[in-house]
UniProtKB/TrEMBL annotation:
Binding site for ATP: G10, G12, K13, T14, S15, R109
Function text: Broad-specificity nucleoside monophosphate (NMP) kinase that catalyzes the reversible transfer of the terminal phosphate group between nucleoside triphosphates and monophosphates. Has also ATPase activity. Involved in the late maturation steps of the 30S ribosomal particles, specifically 16S rRNA maturation. While NMP activity is not required for ribosome maturation, ATPase activity is. Associates transiently with small ribosomal subunit protein uS11. ATP hydrolysis breaks the interaction with uS11.
Protein's name according to its UniProt entry: Putative adenylate kinase
Sequence similarity: Belongs to the adenylate kinase family. AK6 subfamily.
Keywords per UniProt: ATP-binding, Kinase, Nucleotide-binding, Ribosome biogenesis, rRNA processing, Transferase
E.C. no: 2.7.4.3
GO molecular function, one term: AMP kinase activity
Catalytic activity of the protein: ATP + H2O = ADP + phosphate + H(+); AMP + ATP = 2 ADP
GO BP terms, alphabetized: ribosomal small subunit biogenesis; rRNA processing
Length: 186
């Protein structure tokens, strides 16, 4: 089963993925690294120090990788980790962080003022969540605010375990739409 773990940069996708790899033996594809390593992009945006991902190229490259990894992974779970994951997967778990807290996390990571502002504003308007609704069949939302990476990993683990056991009806607490942070960016 392929699960997209998405969310604005700084919400904790990488931290959570590393914890779940260790704890559960689930395979993780760190998509942003793969995009750069294998040039799965159309151009480099020098100004924003970012690349413009080629989603079609990524999709075709991932097909073979995912089939292989599902065979090797515990329970056949493959996590696609990236703020782009929801463009690829049918199931998306969207990590959220209250923008003022997100800003602090990104400051700790040495992001520029401009990139911090851009990401905090994207988080405030639910940008990734809205995209996930557009692209995915099933979307779950995990609020990481005021919690540790360990606790968030526990939330993601609980969602995946319920998907594996077919008990999605017990995942109401992760139903998207309860967060309204539109006025949270100073
Ligand atoms: N509840 C939480 N869940 C995940 N990460 C958290 C949480 N609280 C604080 N953090 C911290 O926020 C940062 C998230 O960074 P990272 O995992 O690289 O995010 P992303 O991969 O989404 O850009 C890490 O330093 C992590 O320790």
């Amino acid at each position: 089963m392929l699960i997209g773990l998405t969310g604005t940069p700084g919400t904790g996708k990488t931290s959570v993925s590393r914890l779940l790899e260790k704890r559960r033996g689930w395979k993780v594809i760190y998509l942003n690294d793969l995009i750069k390593e294998e040039h799965l992009y159309t151009e480099i945006d020098e100004e924003r120090n970012a690349v413009v991902a080629d989603i079609e190229l990524i999709r075709s490259r991932l097909t073979g990788i995912i089939n292989e990894m599902e065979k090797e992974s515990t329970n056949g779970i493959v996590i696609l980790e990236s703020h782009l994951a929801h463009h690829i997967t049918d199931i998306a778990i969207v990590l959220r962080a209250y923008p003022p807290e997100l800003k602090k996390r990104l400051e700790m990571r040495g992001y520029s003022e401009e990139k911090i502002k851009e990401n905090a504003e994207a988080e405030a308007i639910d940008l990734i969540l809205a995209e996930a609704f557009e692209w995915c069949d099933r979307v779950y939302e995990v609020n990481t605010t005021g919690r540790t990476a360990e606790e968030t990993a526990g939330d993601v683990e609980r969602i995946i375990d319920h998907l594996l056991s077919g008990k999605e009806e017990e995942l109401q607490e992760y139903t998207p739409g309860s967060l309204d942070w539109i006025d949270s960016v100073p």
